[in-house]
Amino acid sequence: MATTDIPEQLKKFEVPGRVTVLEGNGEMPKIEVRTDWGTAEIYLHGAHVTEFQKRGEPPLLFTSQFSRFEAGQGIRGGVPVIFPWFGAREGEAAHGFARVSDWELHETSAVPEGGVTLRFRLPETPESATWPAFTANYVVTVTDRLTLELIITNISAGQPFSFENCLHTYFHVGDVRTVSITGLKGAAYLDKVENFASKTEAADAIQISSEVDRVYLDTTAAVEILDSALKRKIRVEKRGSASTVVWNPWIAKAQQMPDFGNEEYQQMVCVESGNVSKNKIVLPPGKSAVLKVVLSSEKI
Ligand code: BG6
User: Fold this and answer.
1) Where are the domains of the chain?
2) Which residues are catalytically annotated?
3) Structurally, what CATH architecture does the domain formed by 3-299 represent?
4) CA 38 to CA 54: how far, in whole Å?
5) pTM greater than 0.85 (yes/no)
């Protein structure tokens, strides 16, 4: 799709000076957002935010130089929307179909304070039809912070809808070995690197010096990432999220991932907010679950 071929039904969402629809990588439609504070980029593929950058700061999100931008493949980096299951599932794609589906753009609006709000909806797909009837909406608000809201509504006649969700955020850091992650002390976690062993976080500040893949359960508080190399503090505030996942693939796993550079593990850490494992959501008919994450940063 050439940029001039962006369909009219997408072009109509452009807001002069604020929202532009372009051809992105892999000829996929991409939405560029400009605000009074900086820029963001979102692909319809996966409703995937791939970039958020405040003026005068390095990018907040990490996206791999080796990411695929292909139908059926997730984008490596940014904020994958994980739904309706987290992790591996026999015979199916890891982390659910939402991140590999093409979402529909439903609304864009410039908010008076100088930011932009975009609303996406997951269309019905053959995969979604095998679940109790639901709607999935995703609202992205770009200001001096990035606010992400995933709203799942059970519209079935009478079935509870049981699912996992997660905003699998990849943060860009200067050097992962000098990063400290706070806010999880005392939390119970499943250590996926040790076959899901149950442990309790003892550290005031988590440091990373090997592969880390942990699901922290019953964790609702904000998490902060102190990045001494970039002299920046990132804050992850959340609502409607009982789980926090911390992930860095480190050296061996990085080498096994075809869509990730061998050295890129040094420049990223995932701090993911959602409801997974025993925190999965069981939604009664007619009810909605809102997962809201606010990402902000300041210089230190
Ligand atoms: C994390 C999981 O959330 O995502 C890890 O806890 C997984 O186990 C990682 O390796 C990346 O997953 P994927 O499917 O994007 O390679």
Assistant:
1) 3-299
2) 168, 272
3) Distorted Sandwich (2.70)
4) 4
5) yes
